[in-house]
Amino acid sequence: MGQQLLDGGVTMAQTQQREESASRTEPRSAPPIGPLELARWVWRQLTSMRTALILLFLLALGAIPGSIIPQRRVNPVQVADFVQNNPELSRWYERFGLFDVFGSPWFGGIYLLLLLSLLGCILPRTVAHWRLMRSRPPVAPRNLHRLSAHQTWTTTSAPEEVLAVARQQLRSRRYRVVTDETATGTSLSAERGYLREIGNLVFHVAIVVVLVGVAVGSLFGFRGTALVVAGNGFSNTVTQYDGYQGGAFFHEKQLAPFSLKVDSFDVTYETSGEARGAARSFNARLTYSPEPGAQTRKYDLQVNHPLHVDGTEVHLSGYGYAPRFTVHDGSGKVAFSGPVPFLPQDGMFTSTGVVKAPDAEPKQLGFEGFFLPTAVVDPQRGPVSIFPDALNPSVFLTGYAGDLGLDAGIQQSVYELDKQGLTQLTANGGPWRQELQVGETAKLPGGGSVRLDGYTRWVNLQISRNPGAPIALVGAVLALAGLLLSLVVRRRRVWVRVSQVDGRTVVAVAGMDRGERFTSRAPGVARTDPPQRGRPDRVVNDGERPATADGEENDLAIEIEKISAGLPGRAEPVGEE
């Protein structure tokens, strides 16, 4: 009976042991993650530097379509032409907001996530650095001779005297110094270079400031372009702009009520040498009025010298030629008269454009062609311009008659002809084409004529208001300052240990730059490098390679030498402590 009970007890113990072993080997299912843990994990991932770099890359990548695809806020006519020519592709562009990239939800989401990620990186680092600045420097290591730069010598001076001089030396070099009593003697621990991390933080803060400045300028400012022919004027209203883009919080009523007139535009070119044909100076003479009824003022608008009016800047961004035409229809009436801007296509200002005469009868007339400032006929290339200035101006035209499509209610570009309702004019069995010089008139097939009266110049004005520009400028200056601090300032620690050995004072001075590590092996026999011109004596470990770069090592060794040179008894280095 007792044996049976004993056997039963052993069996139960073995069974319990097997169950415990199985419970240890079987993987335990992790408890489910709660909402708080999930939120912390997401926040840690979002505020990591890797995520910030990915978001910055995505922001740059997302800006590419905004530079390639026509944007509705900048040029709605070009967007309408693109939609008409590419209906299937345009539906996908509309779905992803590619016709308004910088105002799309996905671009704004990346922008806000980048701001949040940077703030999440900066704030914890700022708190940690603040605590580090208030904490004491680390205690001196036991083996100072393992550091890449160290000095050791003996002296008859009292330890208190050496420590007092060392403390004065370190503080004069802007070190923060504390005193420690250890088993190996009394030591001074010194540290400096906190501005390096402050520079890193300032740099990251500056990126946030720049992003905020760009956002403020985009939300509360506007930008537009206007092509103005010399002799004509411009009023700061939306209808006068060729392209206009206003911020989400900018209303048209906030436009400054100024007006201006381009009196003349002068440009000079290099006439000889390798730079022949290069523009040398630009000057648009303006007459402007800050508000209706105010006294007019004169201003010479030049590149990088914008006109400032009530917080709005007017820049000179381009120029070209506007040939002047007079078109008579078949009944002899003047159907069109005036300058027409032609757009330059190359450095010699070969310019293309169209002339529209919607009042012509019985059919509307349209012409397209190109203007050559200095025209010559090349045997291979045909008519070309060989100089950007108007030395021999000519225009080459081809004509169309029919319906220009201006009454359909669809926006059209003033630089293109809608040829769906037009028929090309023909003469002598082929398309009608004509070269005109200033003052020449060409007869049109079926009646009418076109005359080149001359030419004038036009200027392209970029008009903008950007309240975020000062903020972005401050951010750029801060970024430069922070970058310089992080590159120039170096985190450095220095220790001075004083101990008594056989009635003499042993002084050991060593230092290390932040990021340097101790040598991995035990120290060998120390040696003293022979003096060299331009370099102080220094003690190094035989066979060891310092952990720092050569430039940093030399700089640190020089500083340790200078600190040691000012201490009592520093006459001859004697090796290790």
Describe the structure.
The protein is α+β, with helices and mostly antiparallel strands and 577 residues long. It has 10 helices and 28 strands. The strands form 7 sheets. Strands 4, 6, 10, 11, 12, 23 and 24 form a 7-stranded antiparallel β-sheet that branches. Strands 13, 14, 15, 18, 19 and 22 form a 6-stranded antiparallel β-sheet that branches. Strands 1-26-25-3-2 form a 5-stranded antiparallel β-sheet, with helices on one face. β20 (426-427) and β21 form a beta hairpin. The longest helix is centred in the first third of the chain and has 30 residues, at 105-134. It is elongated. The two termini are 79 Å apart. The model is unreliable at 517-550 and 571-577 (pLDDT under 50).
Salient structural properties:
single chain; 577 residues; alpha+beta; six-stranded antiparallel β-sheet
Write the topology of this structure.
Layout: H1 2-25, H2 35-46, H3 49-68, H4 76-85, H5 87-95, H6 105-134, E1 149-155, H7 159-172, E2 176-182, E3 185-192, H8 194-220, E4 222-229, E5 233-235, E6 243-246, E7 259-269, E8 279-289, E9 297-301, E10 307-309, E11 312-328, E12 334-339, E13 343-344, E14 351-357, E15 364-372, E16 375-378, E17 382-385, E18 394-402, E19 422-424, E20 426-427, E21 430-431, E22 433-437, E23 441-443, E24 449-465, H9 469-488, E25 492-501, E26 504-513, E27 526-528, E28 539-541, H10 550-565
Antiparallel strand pairs: 1-26, 2-3, 3-25, 4-6, 4-24, 5-7, 7-8, 8-9, 10-11, 11-12, 11-24, 13-14, 14-15, 15-18, 16-17, 18-19, 18-22, 20-21, 23-24, 25-26, 27-28
